[in-house]
């Protein structure tokens, strides 16, 4: 949460807070009125934010309006479908708001920043491994903010390198390590959009059941990235200047981050087991509470009480931080809305044309998900949009005769690969800006071979899961 300021107050930030509170209430009670209110607040939030966002976001709004008109003209149950799509968008807004609270609290923590500096300043032989593991650990809490944080600290540590060639090579390797570390969280993290959306689209399973297989996918991504970096490490004509080793023991230096992760992950799992609420509901209710507690423990100016300081930081988050995220909120809501409503409209079109995806071989459906999701990212489709559009068109895991975990692993694996290659995703855009290259170069240029190798490994993995 940012430092409180007496200026730049924007009360529109209360609207996504209302969405989050309604979704939390609905997750625990199942009351339809709370789901309805969440959708109404989400729609109002997007309408207000649209007036102050870019033309590209307006284009998504135009597509959404066109889909609503198409649905109204062709389907008698169109209002129900629009309601479902709005609730899907509201879920994304609520999760983004909850995670935004802990992300902004972390960015103001000196102990978290020191964790990042420790990882970024490791000697070259350990740097890739430290940053890819760090990118994973930070990514669990900060999402793509981990790339911004660690990437900035990496650039800071490289500023002392006098050789341009060595600095350019190190910049690329460090950014790639952080990118791949973050992307691997998309395979399994209960705090990420990938898992939240996928579990709503694949019925009959929960996070606890699919976590072991999806964590294995993440480990494969981390190890494959490290192996490729080791094998293809570029050689330089001049030896790099020697550096003093970074002092400090790993567990001691990373303790603040590990403690935070332990509190959040164990708390989410415990809340899920004790209350029976879905993991997404546990995340949204626990994470903001942890963020508030963390802010309360952080240093504050002299003469200001803890309660007053914490309250002012919360107000700064609501009235300053959230309104600044309006572009991201509009994009994420529209991705969920368009994907859900688009799938609703496409199903009868495919049936009328005799296209029955249930007749496709199961192995082909699973493998296609690994590759199609990152391919759609190359043409500008956010993974939320691609997954929300594609998955409802497919037969269920039960109809295909496979464990649901195989379908979930295929979806999240493809989502993770899109996170390393799509020039339109936040993770690639941030890496490109910090690496001073184009998004295409930071995506396919840096990770093209990695995606081919990792896509093949994940394809074999999901087929193995399907056969189990």
The poorly predicted ranges are: none
Largest sheet: none
Give average pLDDT, whole number. 90
Distance between the termini: 45 Å
Fraction in helix: over 70%
User: Beta fraction of the residues?
Assistant: under 5%
Which descriptor suits the 3D outline? Answer: globular
Q: Radius of gyration over alpha carbons?
A: 22 Å
Helix/strand/pairing class, anyone?
A: mainly alpha
The tally of strands reads: 0
Number of helices: 21
Give the count of structural domains: 1
Question: SSE string, helix = H, strand = E?
Answer: HHHHHHHHHHHHHHHHHHHHH
Protein name: H+/citrate symporter
Organism: Paracoccus albicereus
Transmembrane segments: 21-49, 55-73, 80-102, 137-159, 180-201, 207-229, 250-273, 329-350, 362-394, 406-434, 446-467
Keywords: Membrane, Transmembrane, Transmembrane helix
Provide a compact summary of the structure.
The protein is mainly α and 468 residues long. The chain has 21 helices and no strands. Helix 5 crosses helix 7 (145-158) and helix 6 (124-142) runs antiparallel to helix 7 (145-158).
Explain this structure to me?
It comes from Paracoccus albicereus. Keywords: Membrane, Transmembrane, Transmembrane helix. This is H+/citrate symporter. This protein is mainly α. The chain has one domain. The protein is built from 21 helices and no strands. The longest helix has 30 residues. The radius of gyration is 22 Å and the shape is globular. It starts with 13 loop residues before the first helix and ends with a helix. The model has no long low-confidence stretch (mean pLDDT 90).
């Amino acid at each position: 949460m940012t430092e409180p300021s007496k200026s730049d107050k924007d009360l529109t930030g209360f609207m996504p807070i209302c969405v989050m509170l309604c979704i939390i209430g609905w997750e625990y009670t199942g009351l339809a009125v709370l789901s309805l209110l969440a959708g109404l607040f989400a729609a109002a939030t997007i309408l207000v934010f649209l007036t102050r966002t870019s033309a590209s976001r307006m284009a998504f709004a135009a597509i959404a309006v066109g889909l609503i008109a198409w649905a109204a003209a062709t389907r008698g149950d169109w209002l129900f479908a629009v309601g479902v799509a709005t609730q899907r968008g509201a879920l994304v807004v609520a999760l983004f708001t909850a995670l935004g609270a802990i992300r902004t609290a972390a960015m103001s923590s000196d102990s978290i920043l020191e964790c990042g500096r420790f990882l970024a300043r490791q000697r070259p032989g350990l740097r890739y491994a430290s940053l890819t593991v760090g990118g994973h650990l930070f990514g669990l809490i900060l999402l793509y903010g981990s790339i911004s944080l660690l990437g900035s600290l990496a650039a800071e540590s490289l500023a002392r390198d006098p050789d341009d060639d060595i600095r350019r090579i190190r910049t690329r390797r460090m950014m790639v390590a952080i990118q791949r570390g973050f992307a691997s969280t998309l395979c399994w993290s209960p705090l990420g959009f990938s898992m939240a959306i996928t579990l709503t689209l694949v019925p009959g399973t929960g996070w606890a059941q699919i976590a072991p297989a999806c964590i294995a996918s993440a480990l494969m991504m981390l190890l494959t990235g490290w192996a490729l970096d080791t094998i293809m490490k570029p050689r330089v004509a001049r030896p790099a200047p020697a550096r003093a080793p970074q002092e400090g023991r790993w567990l001691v230096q990373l303790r603040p981050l590990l403690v935070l992760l332990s509190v959040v992950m164990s708390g989410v799992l415990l809340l899920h087991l004790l209350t029976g609420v879905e993991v997404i509901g546990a995340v949204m209710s626990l994470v903001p509470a942890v963020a508030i507690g963390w802010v309360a423990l952080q240093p504050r100016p002299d003469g200001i009480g803890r309660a007053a300081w914490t309250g002012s930081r919360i107000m700064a988050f609501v009235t300053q931080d959230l309104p600044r995220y309006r572009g991201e909120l509009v994009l994420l809501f529209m991705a969920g809305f368009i994907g859900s409503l688009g799938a609703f409209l496409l199903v009868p079109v495919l049936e009328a044309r005799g296209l029955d995806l249930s007749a496709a071989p199961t192995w082909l459906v699973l493998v296609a998900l690994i590759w199609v999701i990152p391919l759609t990212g190359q043409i500008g489709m956010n993974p939320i949009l691609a997954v929300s559009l594609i998955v409802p068109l497919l037969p269920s895991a039960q109809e295909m005769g496979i464990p649901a975990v195989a379908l979930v692993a295929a979806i999240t694996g493809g989502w993770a690969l899109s996170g390393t290659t799509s020039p339109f995703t936040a993770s690639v855009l941030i890496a490109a800006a910090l690496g001073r290259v184009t998004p295409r170069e930071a995506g396919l240029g840096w990770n093209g071979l990695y995606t081919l190798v990792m896509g093949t490994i994940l394809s074999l993995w999901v087929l193995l899961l399907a056969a189990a």
